[in-house]
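Reviewer 2 asked us to include a model.

Predict the structure of this chain.
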Amino acid sequence: MNIEVENAHKRKKQPEVVRRALLDQAARITLEQGLTKVTFQAVADAVGVTKGGVMHHFATKNALVLEVFNDAMAKFEAEVDAAMASDPVSYGSFTRAYIDATISLGEKAQAEYDNQATLYVLMLGDSELRELWAKWANAQLKKHAATDDTETLSMARLTADGIWLSDFSGIHIADKQSLHDRLIKMTHRDFDTSSN
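Predicted model (C-alpha cells):
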C-alpha cells in the first residue's frame, strides 16, 4: 500500500488508514526481512509517508513493534474465537481452532502474511513479546481446561506449532493437508485416549 503524499494539504487526513498501513507494512517487513529491518524509515518508505508520519503514530520502534504484535494477537484470537463459536463439538474445540489458525492451508497459505507468523517471528526475537504470548496462551489453556486439557490435545497443538515453524523455515512438508487432517482427528474424544 502506498499512501499518496502529493498534495497532502488538499487530501483529507485519514489517520486510521495510515496507522493500519503502518502496522501492515511493519508486519510484512518483519516476515520478509526480519525484525531488525523494521525501522521508521523502512516502514515510512513502504507506506509512502515521511519518517515523521510514522513517529506521529508511534513514539518509538518498540511501541510500533508492540502494536504490530498486539494487532496480530487480536486477529489470531478473533480467528480462534470465531472457529470455536462455529464448532458444534465443545470437546477439543480450542485445539481444533488453534490448529486451523496455526497451519497455513489453501488461501491462507497464499496470503502475503498471516497473524500467527507475525506473532511467532516477533516473539522469537523479543523476550517481552514471548512473555505476552505465554500469558495469552496460558490464559487460553486455563479458560479451556475443561475441554482441551489432555496430553493428546497438547501434543496436537505442539505439533501444529512445529509444522508452522518447519513451513516458515522453508523445510519441505510433503502433505501438510494430510498432517492437518490427522491432527484434527486427534482432537476428537473417541481418538483421545488420554482423556479417559
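The CA atoms of residues 5 and 49 lie 6 Å apart. The chain has two domains: 1-59, 61-195. We have added this to the supplementary material.
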